[in-house]
Amino acid sequence: MLRFLTAGESHGKALVVVVEGLPAGLAVEVSAIQRELSRRRLGYGRGPRMRFEADVLEILGGVRHGRTLGSPVAIEIGNSEWERKWTREMSSEPGVPATKLTKPRPGHADLAGMQKYGFDDARDVLERASARETAARVAAGVLAKLLLKAIGVDIVSHVVQIGTATARRDQLPLPADLEAIDASQVRCLDPVAEEQMVAEIRQAAKEGDSLGGAVEVVAHGVPVGLGSHVHWDRKLDGLIGQAMMSIQAVKACSIGAGIEIAALRGSVAHDAIYYDSASGEYLRKTWRSGGIEGGISTGGPVVVEAWMKPLATLNRPVLETVDVVTKEATVSFKERTDVTAVPAMGVVAESMLALVLAQEALHKFGGDSVAEFSRNRLAFLSSLGETPSAVR
Ligand code: EPS
Question: Which of 129, 134, 228, 384 is 20 to 30 A distant from 111 in Cα terms?
Fold first, then answer.
């Protein structure tokens, strides 16, 4: 079973992620992880921290001479800001912080977290609730993506909405589009929408406001048979839903045609099946089901959308709150912040989808080495009468 665990606070010394259950023999390079971490920092509208902070990456275990050993992989992502500014406030030694944050910000975990854990300082909550933690998820996601690549699965995301600006959505993005997507200021394939999104971000920045939006994430090459119909917590769409909804600030997730399918008639809502004699595959003519039926992958592209709320930290202190010490009405403290993090959320969503699919692929095909895992996938698809190409 593939699982991962992250630790670390936003302004702490480092984030750490341990990924367990990867087969041996997966080729991993630090540069591949570094590249993905850089992608997560992309996007017009990110705050100043993205410029002056670096993700200082180190593989601590589980990889030898560029290949996984089958043991847990541990990765550390140091915060370059720590040494400069946070050693006192975020010290693990006994003591007290110089300042306590007592005006919890609406829209963040601050107040509910303080109440739940008995804290009198919102920093005790916000440091871990921060989306900085997604850097660790992306590092884990690289390993999942590399494993999936070995069985021909590629994942791509693009921004389809920022604020009120929406992109055309008539074609699924392909792996080959990823370079152009990442080259866009907001990771959007539609140049008209890109311009509108940038204008909207610029305006919101001027007004000290923030913006939400949506990304579409597509996994190509997913084999039939991941997930299961037999039990609620084995359904692939359910697992993807949990993974997407766990991303900081994501408030909704849909699969395939999503909420739009509710308005269609049953006669036109579903994906017609046909047989492709060349590949021996049963294919679908459309992807309204998002490549998942009854909780099982169908062999078509897995299509997921995730919606993010506007960030709750604003550069203009207008959100009403209460000082938990004086109980007086006030406005939430001002922090420097991003105007929007939707482009970065796309990269995080790719990672979360990769982790779920890799976990389910390992569940289905097993294997202690990548070669065995890959062989098992070929054997399964051949048993269905398909003629899959060996990816590696
Ligand atoms: C975040 C707030 C910002 C972001 C941070 C996530 O940090 P700060 O409040 O220190 O300016 O920059 O994201 C990252 C550091 C990162 O690497 O993604 C938040 O509150 O979630």
Answer: 134
